[in-house]
Amino acid sequence: MKTLSILLSTAGLAGVGAIALSALPAEAATAASCSGARSIASAPMLRNHQPPSWGTVRLVRDSCYQYWAEITMASPLVANAKANAFLVQYGGGNNGRVLSCDSSGGNGSVIQGQRTCRTPKVKATAGSITFAAIGREYHNYGGGYEEISENVTKRTR
């Protein structure tokens, strides 16, 4: 009887361990299964709406219908410059919501020495919800940051 008790308790612990090891956070499991991130719309970053392009703002979607905006500057930013991407949602319960690289889940705006940032990801499977990405570049000439360029992608799914 003592052997059976030890065997059952060991089996029970092994079962608990197996369950604990196989349980992944939902976010990690989703990230692992979502692939195929691709740019679905992009626009050049122009100053005064004139070439040359100083970077690109992109609207990106993955296979799980998660959307986000990214900005990539042509070269690392200099001191007193920064850039940010914004994701704008149209439709659904969050119509008009705007998220930036600085929003929770984003990786922070582009600052000196950096080239890129992305907004948090937003899952949207409803066909009535569309998105656009906005890119903005700023410079501080001594009186605070002023916008020096902006562009927006087309609104799409």
CATH architectural designation: Sandwich
The number of domains is 1
Radius of gyration, in Å, reads 23 Å
Could you report the average pLDDT, rounded to the nearest whole number?
A: 86
Largest sheet: 5 strands, antiparallel
Q: What is the CATH topology assignment?
A: Immunoglobulin-like
Keywords for this entry:
alpha+beta; 5-stranded antiparallel sheet; 157 residues; 4-stranded antiparallel sheet; 9 strands; Immunoglobulin-like; disordered N terminus
Structure description:
The protein has 157 residues and is of the alpha+beta class. It has a single domain, classed as Immunoglobulin-like. It has helices at residues 2-22, 26-33; strands at 38-47, 50-61, 66-73, 81-90, 98-100, 116-118, 122-123, 130-140, 145-152. Strands 1, 2, 3, 6 and 7 form a 5-stranded antiparallel sheet that branches. Strands 5-4-8-9 form a 4-stranded antiparallel sheet, with no helix packed on it. The radius of gyration is 23 Å and the shape is elongated.
Summarize the structure.
This is DUF2690 domain-containing protein. With 157 residues, this protein is an alpha+beta fold. The chain contains 2 helices and 9 strands.
Furnish the topology, listing elements before pairings.
Elements: H1 2-22, H2 26-33, E1 38-47, E2 50-61, E3 66-73, E4 81-90, E5 98-100, E6 116-118, E7 122-123, E8 130-140, E9 145-152
Antiparallel strand pairs: 1-2, 2-3, 3-6, 3-7, 4-5, 4-8, 8-9
